[in-house]
Structure formats: C-alpha cells, structure tokens
Write the structure tokens for this entry.
Amino acid sequence: MIRQCITPSTLEAVLNILDEEGKDVELIAGGTDLVIDIRNEKFKKSKLLNIAKFKLLKFININEDKTSIGSGTKFTDIVENGEVEKLFLGLWKACKSVGAPQIRNMGTIGGNICNGSPAADSVPPLLALDANLIMISKDKERVIPLREFYLDKGRVDRREDELLYAIKFNTLKRNEGIAFEKLGLRKALAISRISCSIYIQLEKNDYIKNIRIATGALGKYPQREVELECMLKNQEISTGLLNTVSKHMSHIVEQRLKGRSSMHFKRSAISGLFIKTCKDAVEEAKKNV
C-alpha cells in the first residue's frame, strides 16, 4: 500500500532519498505502466518518488560522434525531434508506435527501459544501436551496456540507490542505418506481439560490414540475436541469404518459445518481419551516403 508520495525539489534530494530509503521507494515519471500495477494491486512498495518535473532528465543531445537522451524524455518529444527522425528512423518509428498519443505525452523512454517488459518498443532499436545506460547514485556513476541490463522478465540491473540518468549511443554515419518493425493486435495502440530492429553498416557492393539485430516479445526480455548477426556479417546481401537467415530465426524462436501457445504464430511471423526490417535498414544505410 502506498503511504507517501514524495516530490523532491532537486535531483540531489532524489539521490539522497534513494540512498537512504531505496528499498521502500519506487520512482515515477510518466507512470503509464506503474499506475496499472497500482490499480491491479501488484505494487509492493510503500512510497512513490516523483521525478516527472526534472528538466535535467529531459534532453536530446546529438553531436557528430555521440547521441544522448535523458531518461525523463517523453516519447512525444522524441517523435517531434526532426534530427532523431532523420538519423535514427528505426528508433523514431519505435517511439512513435508506443501506445496512443496520450501515452506518448506521458510515457518516458527511461520508464520504458526500466519497466523490464519483453515488449517495450523503444528497447530493440536501442539494443541495435548498442546503447549504454548511465546510472547515477549519490556517490557515483555507473555505465552499463543495455544488453546486460535485463536479468529476467520484469527484472533489471538497477540498484536500489540508482537512477537511470541517460541513454548514450553512437551517432550514425555514412553507410549506416537502423530500422524497426512490429506486429501487434491493433496498429499503434497494441502492445507488440513481436518486434524487430536492425542496425546495418554497408560496404561497397552491398556487403554487410557490421550488423546488430534485436527483437522484442520473443523471450523473457528484449535481446540481441547474435547468432543471426554472425551469419550475416561480411556477407553480400541477397534474397537467398535473407531467406536462409529468416528460416534460422524461425527455428530459434521455435526452440526459445517451445511449449508456449504463441510459439506457432511467432515462429511464422518473425520470418517476414525480419526480412522487411533488414531491407528497410539497408535502404536507410544507402540514403546516408
């Protein structure tokens, strides 16, 4: 039962409270997922720590080499940022697909990451971008790769005294692109049934110099598909190659979801979704020349 909602005036005060009372406190920014848990009586902690108003957590900084997004940045702010749309179309599409406009007006990218949902839309493109998370506490800063942040369904590597401050990744350059696709029960308003994001770097003659593939809702948490990346790296893109890799992706999903009622649908659906996402990523990389 919630006994107290605390709204500190400074970020320093937030970190002090987390340091002293972290085990009893839950952070709230947008609250789009947390409010549902509270209504369903799944919320266990006694105090809410409101960080919604902190401008220090709301920013999008894009320079030549690095891009950083504050954890308190709302999805609407990301969608309305023209540079994000131009440079990181896959991330932009993922953020635009989060719920209805009302949800995007409230929901934050940091909350989407820390919620630990297997179907979090913003996470696959961030995994494909090889993003790092900047975690801060009263006395220190910790950098953790996003791919290492997820421990189990609903469990993440955020310590009780920590706050996610920002997400950082490389700014895309020449011959690089990122794409995102998802399948849901209803367009935009649906939680993803499956999602896929692919970052690709091309060399001459359509050879894949580097590739990172991430999926959502195909396991306990969003994850990189390293086995597929190894199959594609240093290969020339062709219909035959994509068909071979997509079949292997279907096999991976079959093994990963064995025994689940959703396995048959997801095993079939991921094949076409993967091919489309890969083609879109190639198209984006070719635009960026």
